[in-house]
Write a structure and sequence with these properties.
The chain is mainly β and 460 residues long. It contains five helices and 26 strands.
C-alpha cells in the first residue's frame, strides 16, 4: 500500500483490500493537519509576512488585488484628500478644524463690519456693515454720501426751498412758493433744474401743486428765456400760437376739433366744433357745429355730396347746381336763368364794323342778361346799298336793314318777327331793355359799304 508524499496518508492500490480503520486513520490525520495550519495562520508575524512596498501613484480600479496593490490604492486616495505630494505627508489642517471653520459665524478669515481694506465684509450684531465713500460709479454708496444728496431733493424728508428761479441748486428738485422770484405763476410747486455745465446752460421744469400746470424755460449761454406753459390736461389753456404742418385727431368714436374765444359773450355762438362721425352720413359727411355756452343751443352745418345744409335739413346754402361764380360775379339759378346774387349786373360795352357781304358775328354771349344799348349805323348809305343786322335772342332770330334815308336803324318790325322793343329814333345810346336768358348774338353785313354797331349789355 502506498502513502501520500507530504503527509503520509495511506493510499490503497487496486489489489489492496480497503480497511475501514485505515480510512478513518486518514481522516484523523487530515483533521490534525488542518488544525495545525489554522493555528499557524492566526499567529502570523511581520517576519512571516515579510516587507511589502506601497506605491501611491496608482489610483484604485478594483476591490480585488494583492495586498500591495490594495494598500497602494488606499495610499493614493489619502494623497488626493490631503493635497500633498505623498500620502505620508501630514495635511495642512484636520477635518476637525475644517468642521469648526464651517460652523463659525464671526471673524472668519478676519472678516469685520468695519470699513477695513482687503478684508471680508461681515454684518455686526445690528445687521450693519461699513464701507468708505464711493469714488467710481460702480462703488457702493454709504450713508454719508446719500445724506450729501438730500440737498438736491433726493431722500429729503422735506424739499429745500428756492428763493429765486434764476439762482437754483443745479441738478436738484426744489420747492417754490407764490413769492419766489421769477416764478412762472402765483402758485406753489416743485422745480427741477438741470445743467450739464455748472450753470451756463440750464433747463427748468416747474410743476405746480396749486394749478397742476407745468411750465418750462431755458437758460442758454447765460441768457434766461421766458416760461412756456405745457398743455397737459383737458381744459388747460395755451397761450400763443400753435404752429404745426399737420394737426390730426384720430379716435375710435366721434373725432372733434374745437376752437373757442372766451372774449366773446357766453350768449353768443362762440364755440366752434368740427366733427367727423359715423352719425354724419355714415362717416362720409362733415359736421360743423356752433354752440352757445349759455344754454348749449346748437347751429349745425353739414357738408355732404357737394351740398351744405343746416340742422340736418336739406336747406342748401351752397350747391354747384344752385350757385356759381361767373367771371367774378356770384350767380344763382333762377328757374334756368343764371342771375347775379343781389341783382347786380356786370355791364360791358363794345363796338364792331364790317364790309363783309355775308353775316359776321359781332357779339355772341351765352347766359342771361339784358341788352341796354344797341346802335347800328350805315357808314356809307349811298347808291341804294343797305347795311343789315341779325339779332338772335334765346334762339329767336330778328333781322332788319338800313335804307338809304337813315343812318341809324329803326327797330320795330324785323322781318319774320317783331323785335321786342319800340321803334328807335335816329340818336345814339338811346337806352333800351331787352332781356335774354340763354343767348344774345348780333351779326352784321353790308351790300357794298360799311356797317357798324355799338352796344352795351348787362350780364348776370
Amino acid at each position: 500500500m502506498q502513502t501520500t508524499q507530504n503527509y503520509g496518508f495511506k493510499k490503497p492500490e487496486p489489489h489492496d483490500t480497503a480497511s475501514i480503520m485505515e480510512i478513518g486513520c486518514n481522516w484523523d490525520n487530515v483533521d490534525s493537519k488542518l488544525k495545525e495550519a489554522m493555528d499557524k495562520a492566526s499567529n502570523v508575524t511581520d517576519e512571516q509576512i515579510g516587507v511589502r512596498v506601497i506605491s501611491d501613484t496608482v489610483a484604485p480600479t478594483s476591490n480585488n488585488g494583492t495586498l500591495s496593490t490594495l494598500f497602494g490604492g488606499l495610499a493614493n486616495m489619502i494623497k488626493q484628500i490631503t493635497g500633498k505630494s505623498s500620502w505620508r505627508t501630514a495635511p495642512a489642517t484636520t477635518l476637525e478644524t475644517v468642521k469648526g471653520h464651517m460652523d463659525a459665524t464671526a471673524n472668519v478669515h478676519g472678516a469685520t463690519s468695519a470699513a477695513t481694506a482687503n478684508t471680508i465684509m461681515q454684518r455686526d450684531t445690528a445687521g450693519r456693515s461699513q464701507v468708505v465713500a464711493p469714488v467710481v460709479a460702480s462703488d457702493v454708496a454709504n450713508k454719508a454720501y446719500v445724506d450729501s444728496l438730500k440737498g438736491y431733493g433726493v431722500g429729503d424728508a422735506t424739499t429745500q426751498t428756492i428763493n429765486d428761479f434764476n439762482n437754483p441748486k443745479l441738478n436738484s428738485v426744489q420747492w417754490y412758493q407764490n413769492t419766489t422770484l421769477n416764478r412762472p405763476e402765483d402758485a406753489w410747486g416743485h422745480v427741477f433744474s438741470f445743467s450739464p455745465d455748472n450753470g451756463s446752460n440750464i433747463t427748468q421744469l416747474a410743476q405746480s401743486t396749486t394749478s397742476r400746470a407745468q411750465w418750462i424755460r431755458s437758460k442758454v449761454n447765460g441768457t434766461w428765456y421766458g416760461w412756456r406753459r405745457l398743455v397737459t390736461a383737458d381744459g388747460d389753456t395755451m397761450t400763443g400760437s400753435l404752429i404745426t404742418p399737420f394737426l390730426g385727431v384720430t379716435t375710435n368714436g366721434d373725432a372733434i376739433l374745437q376752437v373757442e374765444s372766451t372774449q366773446a359773450a357766453s350768449t353768443t355762438f362762440r364755440r366752434k366744433q368740427i366733427y367727423s362721425s359715423t352719425n354724419v352720413y355714415g362717416g362720409d359727411g362733415w359736421l360743423f357745429r356752433q354752440v352757445r355756452p349759455s344754454d348749449n343751443a346748437l347751429i349745425d352745418y353739414m357738408l355732404y355730396n357737394g351740398a351744405v345744409n343746416t340742422n340736418g335739413n336739406q336747406n342748401y346754402i351752397w350747391h354747384s347746381n344752385l350757385l356759381r361764380w361767373n367771371n367774378g360775379t356770384l350767380e344763382y339759378n333762377n328757374g334756368g336763368t343764371w342771375v347775379p346774387v343781389g341783382g347786380a349786373m356786370q355791364f360791358v360795352r363794345g363796338s364792331f364794323s364790317t364790309t363783309s357781304t355775308s353775316y359776321v358775328t359781332a357779339l355772341d354771349i351765352n347766359g342771361g342778361g339784358e341788352l341796354r344799348v344797341l346802335n347800328v349805323r350805315d357808314a356809307t348809305n349811298t347808291g341804294g346799298k343797305y347795311g343789315y343786322m341779325r339779332v338772335t335772342i334765346d334762339g329767336v332770330v330778328y333781322e332788319n336793314f338800313l335804307n338809304n334815308t337813315m343812318s341809324f336803324l329803326k327797330f320795330g318790325s324785323f322781318s319774320g318777327n317783331t323785335f321786342p322793343i319800340a321803334a328807335m329814333s335816329n340818336s345814339s345810346d338811346l337806352p333800351i331793355c331787352v332781356p335774354f336768358k340763354t343767348q344774345l348774338k348780333i351779326e352784321l353785313r353790308h351790300e357794298s359799304g360799311v356797317t357798324s354797331a355799338d352796344w352795351m349789355i348787362g350780364k348776370y
